[in-house]
Amino acid sequence: MDLLNTLVDKGLRRELPTREEALAVLATSDDDLLDVVAAAGKVRRQWFGRRVKLNYLVNLKSGLCPEDCSYCSQRLGSTAGILKYTWLKPDEASQAAAAGLAGGAKRVCLVASGRGPTDRDVDRVSETIRTIKDQNEGVEVCACLGLLSDGQAERLREAGADAYNHNLNTSESTYGDITTTHTYADRVDTVTKAHAAGLSACSGLIAGMGESDEDLVDVVYSLRELDPDSVPVNFLIPVEGTPLAKEWNLTPQRCLRILAMVRFVCPDVEVRIAGGREVHLRTMQPLALNLANSIFLGDYLTTEGQAGKADLEMIADAGFEVEGTDQVTLPEHRVDAGAGCGSHGSAGCGSHEGAGCGSHEGGGVCGTAAPAASAVPATAVNEQPRTDLVAVRRRGAGTDLAPNA
Ligand code: SF4
Questions:
Q1: 20, 57, 67, 247: which one has the fewest Cβ atoms less than 10 Å from its Cβ?
Q2: Measuring CA to CA, which residue among 245, 322, 385, 255 is closest to residue 56?
Q3: CA of 143 to the centre of ligand 1 (A)
């Protein structure tokens, strides 16, 4: 297929595909799916070998958010039966992190619900970061606290944070359909602040909210412009009690095409399969490791993932290896550049799931806008809760029960 040969060549050269080429990947047929995966897999192996980076989520503060992100089970007005608690203490967070690290994770992602942190919250998270770093040599820490005010990114960096996550989630033109309490520009501003403070930027998207192919390509090209080091690709987890609970728009095949498109547009960037991996890829998860070089271990913020042990078995069975703390995730040219897809000057590209700030979770398009026709298969809307696929987290951080890492 000429398209795939062209995309492989461009990916190996870190050259930006055209928008038409990116759209064509999303439009490929099921007959061509394995060829698409094989082609994007060549690009993945060129820059990341067969390594899989494991990340571990610690939800520092769950629920009770004043924002209205439609995909999020922690949003204002959510009736989802999620865990609700306020800030974990530093030792509690460190204990939760230790479980993920023992399971093979090398990065801990500290996430808190809310519009953004107060300066007192930054103090609190700074103490938590220092505690985790003191107790776990070599751990990478990423903070995900919402919109940042001036100076907060610098303070997190000084406390030892390595990275900051804030997702764009969807295209600029549809952003107002999923959230009204803050803007797309607010999100871009926070990613820019994190980058400027010397934090490794992590920013990604949520697919399955009823968006069109054009929206998906738009957000991925915008991410490349922002040049994060890691791009988390979330697949909407339609949580009961959120406005997007009925948005079951994804198939495993579409998820694979989306991941392949992200890999071609952001060839040398950590592409992470985030929330919704188990829900939407299901038995096709191992195939997706040919596209993404990073996943979350165990549970998500407010919903359950498959057991950490099953993640490790899947990686080994598929012929991949867990990336160690002595291995550098990014290709040398990006490390030398300090962060970012340094090679291209045009676009660059990095969390998790089902509820929460920026990185995780899933939603679906906000009730106000009709989903684009091309995005939603006729069978998409499921009127019945999929309790077989979506389970609210009842263990780990914020509970007395052990996590499943
Ligand atoms: S994504 Fe973050 S800001 Fe939006 S409702 Fe959820 S916790 Fe609040």
A1: 20
A2: 322
A3: 14
The two beta strands, 200-202 and 321-322, are unpaired
Selection from 229, 231, 236 nearest residue 219 by Cα: 231
Residue whose CA is at the smallest distance from ligand 1 atom 1: 357
C-alpha distances out from residue 95 to 231, 285, 300, 403, Å: 27, 29, 17, 11
Band (pLDDT 50/70/90 cuts) for residue 364 is very low
pLDDT digits (tens, 9 = 90+) for 195-246: 999 999 999 999 999 999 999 999 999 999 999 999 999 999 999 999 999 9
Which atom belonging to ligand 1 lies closest to the Cα atom of 113?
Answer: 7
Q: Looking at ligand 1, which residue's alpha carbon is closest to its atom 5?
A: 75
Known binding positions for [2Fe-2S] cluster:
109, 142, 202, 272
What is the CATH architecture of 2-375? Alpha-Beta Barrel (3.20)
